[in-house]
Amino acid sequence: MQYKISLPDNYDMNVIRQRVADNGHRTDGFQDLIFKAYLISEKRDSSKSCNEYSPLYIWQNNDGMNKFIFDGYYDNILSSFGWQKINIGIPITCCLGK
């Protein structure tokens, strides 16, 4: 599951970094969550890139994912950025090394 939040070119991406530092731990141990990453793309003066914040979650099954989306845990995103299109894919395999 991944959603991409497009942000204005002049958006201070340190706000997103602080958001992740302050809130990222809240999904530690979340039901059925195998892996999470908070991806950031940052606009550079001379590039065609843009400011984006794209959380990525890999779930063991849809129970935890549905709980996250529909039982209030996604509300922090809704209140900050509005509804975002959620991309849902089914991984064939996920190997996490130590």
TrEMBL record:
This is DUF4865 family protein. It comes from the Bacteria.
